[in-house]
Design a protein that fits this description.
alpha/beta, two-stranded antiparallel ribbon, 15 helices, 10% strand
């Protein structure tokens, strides 16, 4: 009997649910909690048509409410499947909204439309071409001397501004300004002495009169040794020897002079006498091709005097008017190289006793007082007839023009104020001083 009862009680304990006795599985009202709830990602565990809702996370992740008009153009909508996760649901693309018609114009109101950019007409091209030469005369010179003018003219303007009386202190400061512009000691001394004498004679009463007198003295210094470079009617061919150290622009100067003579209706020939520097012959040939001018050359390493002699013979046989002879760039302090230049000079005289008919020394204005030393040394090897001063646009030491003129007695016959062919121009003392001292008009600064 007791065994039967024990057996019956054991079966009852095995069939009883453990959840019924677990207080943690009941809510506060005593109702049992379903522990067989499917996982969040399980879709088959939910009854059909039901949607799982997350109490807090779903509210935080919900998108902001938008109006029906703002949501209309949307290409896709977010829906929730049985798992409660938002899923992208494709919707039919909505047609683009029609552009609203412009409001009706008021009476008398004109319709404004964007005009197309004006095309350049053939008639406008000649007008633009005419503007360039106008600036190229005095304007290009002023532009090329901008750095020197900034150094000298502005310094003088600041010095003389508001100064009424002319005293020794003012003259000393004026002397300092001239020396800083590389005018040179001798030229500066000559100018200051002339101004001091005029002050003692009471010819200058104020700073304005002093400034005007300074312009006159500078122009007179250049005029006293000025010489315009012109080819005479004879002899033919007219031989021009171009000398100078490396890097001053000899070959470029020859190319620009050849273009100038050709534009004057003359027939120039170029002699590639710089056989020492690499690619010098090729550079001169490029200038010859560009200007349609023949070049006589023998290649790198050839004898320079022989090349120039061949060029003279070719010029005579072809009826050329002028021969521009390039020479190897050589340092003025190398005696053997200067002697070679003297040899070229002797060989040319075998062809024509009067040759060379002109010898132009090319100097770089940026070298300052070193250019003056070069001029002195070259004068001893060659009978120089004038100076070509290049690269004035790249230096603030344009005052070297006055130093060269005063100490060597050589006239400045051409100056280079830019890269273009027309930027190599004949030297005019009055024009140079005006461009050097006249400051830019107010309001025209570019």
């Amino acid at each position: 009997m007791f065994k039967f009862l024990r057996r019956k009680g054991r079966r009852k304990d095995e069939t009883a649910s453990p959840e019924a006795d677990d207080p943690a599985l009941h809510d506060s009202a005593g109702q049992a909690v379903d522990t067989d709830e499917p996982a969040e990602t399980g879709e088959d565990a939910l009854p059909a048509g039901s949607t799982a809702v997350r109490p807090d996370a779903s509210e935080a992740a919900a998108p902001p409410e938008v109006s029906a008009d703002d949501a209309a153009p949307a290409r896709s909508a977010l829906v929730q499947d049985h798992s409660g996760e938002p899923q992208a649901k494709a919707v039919e693309p909505q047609p683009a909204p029609e552009q609203a018609a412009p409001p009706p114009l008021a009476a008398g109101q004109a319709v404004v439309t964007a005009e197309p950019a004006a095309a350049t007409t053939p008639e406008a091209a000649p007008a633009a071409a005419e503007e360039a030469p106008k600036k190229g005369l005095f304007g290009r010179l002023r532009a090329g001397l901008a750095r020197t003018r900034s150094n000298l003219a502005e310094g003088l303007g600041n010095l003389l501004l508001g100064r009424k009386a002319i005293d020794d202190e003012l003259l000393e400061e004026l002397e300092t300004q001239l020396l800083m512009a590389d005018v040179g000691i001798e030229a500066t001394t000559e100018i200051i002495d002339a101004l001091t004498a005029r002050v003692k004679r009471r010819e200058l009463s104020d700073s304005d009169a002093l400034y005007g007198a300074l312009r006159e003295e500078l122009a007179d210094l250049l005029r006293s040794r000025a010489s315009t470079f012109e080819l005479p009617a004879s002899p033919r061919p007219f031989v021009i020897l171009i000398v100078g150290v490396n890097g001053v622009g000899k070959t470029t100067t020859i190319g620009k002079l050849a273009r100038r003579f050709r534009d004057q209706g003359l027939k120039p020939i170029l002699a590639a006498g710089d056989t020492f520097r690499a690619a010098a012959v090729e550079q001169l040939q490029v200038w010859g091709d560009r200007n349609d001018v023949p070049v006589i050359a023998q290649g790198e390493g050839a004898d320079s005097a022989s090349v120039i002699f061949d060029a003279l013979a070719a010029a005579r046989s072809r009826g050329a008017d002028v021969v521009l002879a390039d020479t190897a760039g050589r340092l003025h302090n190398k005696a053997n190289l200067m002697e070679e230049l003297a040899k070229v000079n002797r060989v040319m005289k075998r062809f024509d006793e009067s040759a060379p008919h002109a010898a132009l020394l090319v100097l770089d204005a940026g070298t300052g007082q070193n250019a003056l030393a070069q001029a002195r040394e070259f004068q001893q090897a060659v009978d120089l007839s004038g100076v070509v001063l290049t690269k004035l646009d790249g230096t603030a030491k344009g005052g070297i023009v006055f130093a060269i003129t005063r100490q060597t007695g050589l006239p400045i016959q051409f100056i280079g104020v830019g890269e273009q062919v027309e930027d190599l121009r004949p030297f005019d003392p009055d024009e140079f001083v005006s461009a050097l001292l006249d400051q830019e008009p107010s309001g025209n600064a570019a």
